């Protein structure tokens, strides 16, 4: 992730070893200091690398454990024996048997089938059961009825088939390989960190080279120049930052996992925050993924049914006699049944055997009427004609539960126009009335209205057979149809839809206010898609498509100015004929877009189109068909419950509760971590100048070295680590969900004001403060600042053992060395004390610290305590360990830098005040990072 | 689509040109003249303030110092031992008896160092009582005389070549000055030859005695005329026709508060040096 730093540190390490090599060739007894330093640098690189890898691996492990690998079994006929073998051992030509509930173990061509229906949702995303038989019906393998695909499930019936493709050659395997063929691009935060590394490395390398040239031209030995260069590199590279950023990201990842967003790669944590377009799948993500009764029409009125997740309050008028008849038809003309043994499960969560519409009707009637199975038992079914696509109706004949009424009841449901054809009367308020033109018109209006809402409409009618013609012993034959199938009495219409999740509209509004454009991409019908889009707010209430405007103004679609329409509904067919430029135009000019009837490839095209708009695109999806788009997206979001394994492995993030609203959490966390990383980096960069200045002053003014490279490492990897992580816990300064997503090119993680403010303002102030401590220590021990100037050469000569200080005393070289280490410690403490102030000011970028609350983020105080404790241990606990170059520092020196720390705080408060007072001013532009 | 088209060279050149000077906005290096002016003004003021602040803090810090005595003397509790002439690269002196050029630097060094010990220079100094500390209360401070005659053959009075021309080179050994230091016991500098003895070592004054009267030292400001006690050693080589190489070790001895053994500080109360003489 921060490869650039590693390279710089490797260069530093190699330079150390080269320096030792030169020293050794000159003097066999030269000290091993540079070797140690080089090894420490190499160790830092290796350890931070291992740490980052460990963190990454940890979050990948969550994924691995999440994916339950259940070995799939297949029933295969081999050597005229039925055997159960693992699915991966199937070969082309094997004959396999399938029954309801099985997962299809390979792509198979059906040889025989009995009432077989499959659920292709893992392939197409639509969970409508599809009948399968052994007839060849279409040239396209995906459309023909005699092929079942690997990983789809058999819902009912049985079938026998021959394996035609296995493994990667199956249709699903091909989609998966299409997904793996899509290259994974860099994450936005990855790009930002790279940009930041470039800046820091650029500063390090240019200062390094500049001073190398200066030192060489000042006639320093090359060896010395190399050692200066090492110091400059070590001072400039924030060694601890890689670990800090990794920890900050994984903290956020953990927080998001708690809120049901499981992030696979750490860097993906931030991506949602910078997302500007979400391409959302409809089924399952925005909707509940189950058909639900939404509207009823009887007595010439439309009634609204409750479609919320638990169906709890059905408030429509149930007193009409028509409703009594309608509810009877709904209950009786239905083959769906609850699976046994679910007494304690709430109705809406019970598993049902039957297709989606029948399930919806069953649950609807169970909620309103109570025990449906009991009602069916009392009205014994004597004959039935199941639904088929030629009849388009379903019919059953029942005895009535009224012992005095010996008539049979024929109930029928089906496509409304088909049902109406069979009717001669219509029931209004419980009374049969002849079906005349006005009632027929009312029916059509209602039918069109409900259909226009994108709902699937069913018609219901019934007929009481006269008891004299059809006595109780009458034998009904469904093949010869020895009973009337016309002159029914029409009772009502009922429409169903896969309703939106109740949390989605709110989440969409939040995304909107956060400046995120939501595009719906679905395989469903445009009308349904548009209806759902309207109900969740993807198309807002008062916006119109070109077609809507045309309809309102009563003009042709071509005459409407496309710019007038804010919304657009584009079908896959239209998309197929579009050039990329046309697609770009649609994406750019319409703020509310729905793509319907799209194929997996088209999803990919849409994502690419969005990315051409410089947008950071999130894609949600659950089916295998979504996986290429998930992979192509800047962040792919898969559904944890309904999502297929392929989708989950292609995605960067998994929503454990399949809830679109969790995305909002992700956006919020992502934006927060971006802001907080800014603070962390600003905090970390600041002290680089305070670490660098000593080397520059040392070279130019010839002072004894104020801070050693080892000491710098103790700041970067010791005192500063916990505080910079603590900034990741900082709360947002303002409502981050009310601002636009950041612009990929303009709102950088590390921008010019951040670097300039950290380096040239606070960094410099820190350096001055630390120098004051340094000069104080030297002066009070006998070396006044004036004496120190240009003392470097004499100071460092090992054989000069009578160096005179400002008071005439003479120092041996080791006594000077010890004083130098005291100076290191003093400088270290100076930086540490001022880093506390730096940490506090970095809590906010715009607000005053007092607005943010000094004590709200407790972790900051843990960080400050850790800084002080580590410094105390280094100075007093390890003071005697010579290799670490720390000495015991007089207690009063710890307070010398405190005024400077206060000054830093005051200065930053002034900066923030001016930014708040004069937004948009020159100051704001140059000082706000 | 994943591959970004590389910018052509001309394009990036044009971008750079636009960055350096943008005629439409009048921006030079990304800023307008006004913006540059404000930036420069700001940094002038800001850095001016910082410089003033730093100068003030340093001034205030210097005010807390004592001109005469440093605030702390804890880091030099015990003096180091050094030799004259000053070593050039390491404590390794070599010369050729017959070549005056090879030892001229040493002689000049010794002369320069002993200049302040000249009779004329010591005229205003005090003759102190031997064997007791020369403690003063001020306000005027004076220093004790150190007669060069104590160094006998190495005083440079009789032999301005300090014996280098005759194969009897002189070296001076001195103890580092430390303000307020009062040696205990009977401090003396003892030098011995290490390894093969191809020479005879003489010490002046004999036994390398250091008199208490030169202590304590009151610092450069109060006691500018201070002369630290010296001990001279002279090596007399047996065989002057051959290359002679000897290692000499000197130590402060006889005083419990003057350390001469420290693992880390090789010059604390001791010094080891090598002399090579060629004919």
UniProtKB/TrEMBL annotation, chain A:
So where does this one cross the membrane? 7-23, 35-54, 196-214, 226-249, 681-701, 707-729, 754-777, 821-841, 861-886, 892-908
Q: What is the reaction catalyzed?
A: K(+)(out) + ATP + H2O + H(+)(in) = K(+)(in) + ADP + phosphate + 2 H(+)(out)
Q: Is Nuclease found in the keyword set? A: no
Q: Name one GO biological process term.
A: potassium ion import across plasma membrane
Cation-transporting P-type ATPase C-terminal domain span: 704-913
Pfam family membership, one? Hydrolase_3
| An example Gene Ontology CC term for this record | plasma membrane
Q: Which domain of life is it from?
A: Eukaryota
Specify the P-type ATPase A domain's residue ranges.
69-179
What PROSITE patterns does this protein map onto? Answer: ATPASE_E1_E2
Q: How does it sit in the membrane?
A: Multi-pass membrane protein
UniProt keywords (A-Z) are: ATP-binding, Hydrogen ion transport, Ion transport, Magnesium, Membrane, Metal-binding, Nucleotide-binding, Phosphoprotein, Potassium, Potassium transport, Translocase, Transmembrane, Transmembrane helix, Transport
Q: Where in the cell is it found?
A: Cell membrane; Membrane
For the keyword Heme, the answer is no
Q: Which terms in the Gene Ontology molecular function aspect does this entry carry?
A: ATP binding; ATP hydrolysis activity; metal ion binding; P-type potassium:proton transporter activity; P-type sodium:potassium-exchanging transporter activity
Record's family? Belongs to the cation transport ATPase (P-type) (TC 3.A.3) family. Type IIC subfamily.
**UniProt-listed PANTHER family:** POTASSIUM-TRANSPORTING ATPASE ALPHA CHAIN 2, SODIUM/POTASSIUM-TRANSPORTING ATPASE SUBUNIT ALPHA
Protein name according to UniProt = Sodium/potassium-transporting ATPase subunit alpha
Source organism per entry reads: Lipotes vexillifer
Gene field: ATP12A
UniProtKB/TrEMBL annotation, chain B:
Q: Which residues cross the membrane?
A: 38-62
Keyword Nucleotide-binding (UniProt) = no
Write down any Gene Ontology CC term.
apical plasma membrane
> Which cell locations does it reside in?
Apical cell membrane; Basolateral cell membrane; Membrane
The UniProt entry's GO biological process terms, in alphabetical order, are: intracellular potassium ion homeostasis; intracellular sodium ion homeostasis; potassium ion import across plasma membrane; sodium ion export across plasma membrane
Q: Which GO terms describe its molecular function?
A: ATPase activator activity
Q: What is its main location?
A: membrane
Q: Membrane topology per the record?
A: Single-pass type II membrane protein
Does NAD show up as a keyword for this record?
no
**Which Gene3D superfamilies would you find in this protein's record?**
Na, k-atpase alpha subunit
Keyword line: Cell membrane, Disulfide bond, Glycoprotein, Ion transport, Membrane, Potassium, Potassium transport, Signal-anchor, Sodium, Sodium transport, Sodium/potassium transport, Transmembrane, Transmembrane helix, Transport
Q: Give the matching PANTHER family.
A: SODIUM/POTASSIUM-DEPENDENT ATPASE BETA SUBUNIT, SODIUM_POTASSIUM-TRANSPORTING ATPASE SUBUNIT BETA-3
Q: How does it assemble?
A: The sodium/potassium-transporting ATPase is composed of a catalytic alpha subunit, an auxiliary non-catalytic beta subunit and an additional regulatory subunit. Interacts with catalytic alpha subunit ATP12A.
Q: Which family does it belong to?
A: Belongs to the X(+)/potassium ATPases subunit beta family.
What is this protein's function? This is the non-catalytic component of the active enzyme, which catalyzes the hydrolysis of ATP coupled with the exchange of Na(+) and K(+) ions across the plasma membrane. The exact function of the beta-3 subunit is not known.
Q: What is this protein called?
A: Sodium/potassium-transporting ATPase subunit beta
The opening ranks of the lineage are: Eukaryota, Metazoa, Chordata, Craniata, Vertebrata
